[in-house]
Design brief:
five-stranded parallel beta sheet, about 5% strand, single chain, 5 strands
Length: about 250
Amino acid sequence: MRIMLAAALAIAAGPIFANPVFADPVADLIAGTIDACRGCDLQGANFKKADLSGVDLTGANLTDASFHRANLRGAVLDGVTARGTNFNLADLTQAQMTGGNFVRAMFYGAQMSGANLSASDLTEARLQTARLTSASLPGAVLDRALLREAVANNADFSMTSLQETNLNGARLGRSLFDGATINFAGFVQAEANRVSFVNATVSYSDFYGANLRRSIVTGAILTGNRFATAATREVDFDAATMSRNIMANGRMQN
């Protein structure tokens, strides 16, 4: 009888110890005990200054969590929900962030060079002074996002939505905006030389004082934009469909 009871207890105890009821994925991730937590609910978690390089958080709920100054180099954040999440000053170099919900997320001063944000929703995200050199954002939504003074040279913004997006003072040299929809956006004083706007739709946006030298506008539709005092040398505006734009000399086009 005792043997049978002991065996029964052992069987019952096995699964409990194999999968602890009170396991703490936040503590385990910070300690490096685990390097993946796919689909985990990490809402409101504090990962400030944590080393999470290479961690796989695919599909996790990161809403309102803090990754302030965290190391997320090479991390996988595909399909995450990260509404209002704090990534300020985090290192997201080469991170995979495709198809994520980053609405109102904060990336102030974040290092995001080479990050892949394809098809992610960055509506009202705060990316001022972030480094997005060679980042991939095709198909992303950046409506009302703040990228003031961001560094995004050689970045891919093709097919993105940029409604009321603030790129004033951003460094965008050789970046791609092919097929993008840009409406009421700000590029004031932006460094945008050799940028490609092929087949983009750009309307009522402000390029005052921007450096647009050698940019390509072939097939673009440009309506009601302000290019006053912008540097437009070697920009072939004849290759675009133009209407009611204020040109570099301050005059409304004929």
